[in-house]
Amino acid sequence: MTNPSLLILAGDGIGPEVMAEVKKIIGWHGDKRGINFDVSEDLVGGSAYDAHGTPLHDDTMAKAQEVDAVLLGAVGGPKYDDLDFSVKPERGLLRLRKEMDLYANLRPAQCFDALADFSSLKKDVVAGLDIMIVRELTSGIYFGEPRGIFEEGNERVGINTQRYTESEIERVARSAFELARRRGNKVCSMEKANVMESGILWREVVQRVHDTEYPDVELSHMYADAGAMQLCRWPKQFDVIVTDNLFGDLLSDAAAMLTGSLGMLPSASLGAPMANGRPKALYEPVHGSAPDIAGQGKANPIACILSFAMALRYSFDMGDEADRLEKAVEQVLADGKRTADLLGEDGVQPVTTSEMGDAIVEAL
Amino acid sequence: MTNPSLLILAGDGIGPEVMAEVKKIIGWHGDKRGINFDVSEDLVGGSAYDAHGTPLHDDTMAKAQEVDAVLLGAVGGPKYDDLDFSVKPERGLLRLRKEMDLYANLRPAQCFDALADFSSLKKDVVAGLDIMIVRELTSGIYFGEPRGIFEEGNERVGINTQRYTESEIERVARSAFELARRRGNKVCSMEKANVMESGILWREVVQRVHDTEYPDVELSHMYADAGAMQLCRWPKQFDVIVTDNLFGDLLSDAAAMLTGSLGMLPSASLGAPMANGRPKALYEPVHGSAPDIAGQGKANPIACILSFAMALRYSFDMGDEADRLEKAVEQVLADGKRTADLLGEDGVQPVTTSEMGDAIVEAL
Ligand SMILES: CC(C)[C@H](C(=O)O)[C@@H](O)C(=O)O
Ligand SMILES: CC(C)[C@H](C(=O)O)[C@@H](O)C(=O)O
């Protein structure tokens, strides 16, 4: 049997630093658990642009299609702000999502007990929070045509198109219902069916998938603006939220921030099963490339490490290994270890990115 | 000189109840201050549909075009959930916005001292908060064509179009900069220029309006997802936020909820100046029609009353009268008067909608 394969795309900013810690975890699995991965590495985002003049080289794209899972760090930075839209770092990430057809973006918004105080929300509102946002990732206004800036009369007009087919909605709805069955068995679907026809179709299809395939799961619908409100008011009312690409972008970021655990939150982007039964998959932290702290040993590697835990669970069916890794992270936090982003006012000395990685390996 | 004219469209759910209290305030201005309005009333939303089979009768639309300001309560309710998209209560409101060309929607997100405890956010995060969200209201994905649900192959596809012209962006940017000059002199513009071409144009035009007309105002740009995060983390970093119709819908609702003062928040929707120099204008509370508590005397009339205060300020140039009314509201809150939505756990007896209105008249 061949080893499962991983492509590491560390990317820009703090990406390489946090990914270095993930490599320690991967190494530990080989040394101590006999779980070996074939790891290759490549460039994405600004660093790929610097090397090749494109944020994702075709060869890298081809490799991503072949491996069992991609681990991505982060892309972007002020250095690339003035690049043309078509070669911006983000385009590399969007191309991966689109060409790998990673339609289901799983974004857990979880509040770590040890960190509840970091939330801007009151402790009782967030303590113990554990919701899963399933964001459609390969369609909607991110990819719809026509798009562009056009001349019209004597001015320009900026155009983007929101576009959802029934089958695109069906498949991401299924992902949400499947997840719900393994969690709290509740799905809330969010759109603006009161304003957008694409939202009407969304609501109708999610309801149909529910009624015909998942009648046992509790389903509700909410307008996305009300959803944003309710996330801020009492997020614990939710279990799984399913929503489109653009609403998912805003709502999952708001939810992530609410937990107070932003530097801690992983994500998984999953597509259809490959020949070997594993889904196409890319794992990345929710946080960005944080260019302001890059290279200073201040970054928190936990989100990236927990993204690897999601890979163990969703790509390699190693739920026990994932649990172990997640427990190790909790352990280290409970022991009071904190990277600089997690410091309150109590005078604790921060650990470096690398020390945090070492501590987690230790706890394993 | 003729009296300024007002069209009251109380609408559905709690709309009529909260509007009844506004009428008391209008009456007080006539009796005690010699400020008389010519008030007419009509139907909008579900109640208009019940009477005429349309959520906004053409005659009502014509009246709205003629008056100096429209006061709207709220629209919608479960009774109308199964109506066709084209006659849903919301369509009445959207038609008013579009045909009156009310392009600048002003949504203050303000935390009332007496109510800071109601926020799900920590008190220091929200106490004293006072930001103004300027949401573009007549274009973008709410109104862009093509739109609809179409057959494609053997399935259906839901389509909406985001569309912004340079002049549409310019005029709402000007509204934001003008407001900023009278407040904290800071504007933050939000879009997704990293993903959407309409966002690229948005950013470019806002920057140009700034550089050529308002170089004295501090301008920053933020991606809308980061904006959602920052609103949840530390909203006091903002003064004026300007953003498009859809982002504004979500962001302003999130911001409103964060203040803990949802039942308290007014809004103004302003268009171009009419022949008499007054802008086309519609004022409405941010909260909805709350069908679950309609008719029980539980609704909080303050958001609707403060919407009238905004009318005094923005339509009738009566800033002093607006200040007086706002102070009366604060006074009543400071005196401990609370409608049912504002009750904590300290056993205060709630006042009814009508008692709250009376108390505010009293305080005036
Ligand atoms: C970097 C950017 C293109 C991306 C998005 O908008 O999807 C990011 O915000 C995210 O949520 O993963
Ligand atoms: C009622 C609805 C059409 C409306 C909107 O989406 O604009 C509401 O949510 C608002 O924000 O005023």
Automatic annotation (TrEMBL), chains A, B:
It comes from the Bacteria. The record marks Y142, K192 as: Important for catalysis. It is found in: Cytoplasm. It catalyses: (2R,3S)-3-isopropylmalate + NAD(+) = 4-methyl-2-oxopentanoate + CO2 + NADH. The keyword NAD applies. InterPro entries: IsoCit/isopropylmalate_DH_CS, IsoPropMal-DH-like_dom, Isopropylmalate_DH. This is 3-isopropylmalate dehydrogenase. Its EC number is 1.1.1.85. Mg(2+) binds at D225, D249, D253. SMART domains: Iso_dh (SM01329). Keywords: Amino-acid biosynthesis, Branched-chain amino acid biosynthesis, Cytoplasm, Leucine biosynthesis, Magnesium, Manganese, Metal-binding, NAD, Oxidoreductase. Catalyzes the oxidation of 3-carboxy-2-hydroxy-4-methylpentanoate (3-isopropylmalate) to 3-carboxy-4-methyl-2-oxopentanoate. The product decarboxylates to 4-methyl-2 oxopentanoate. Binds 1 Mg(2+) or Mn(2+) ion per subunit. The keyword Protein biosynthesis does not apply. Pathway: Amino-acid biosynthesis; L-leucine biosynthesis; L-leucine from 3-methyl-2-oxobutanoate: step 3/4.
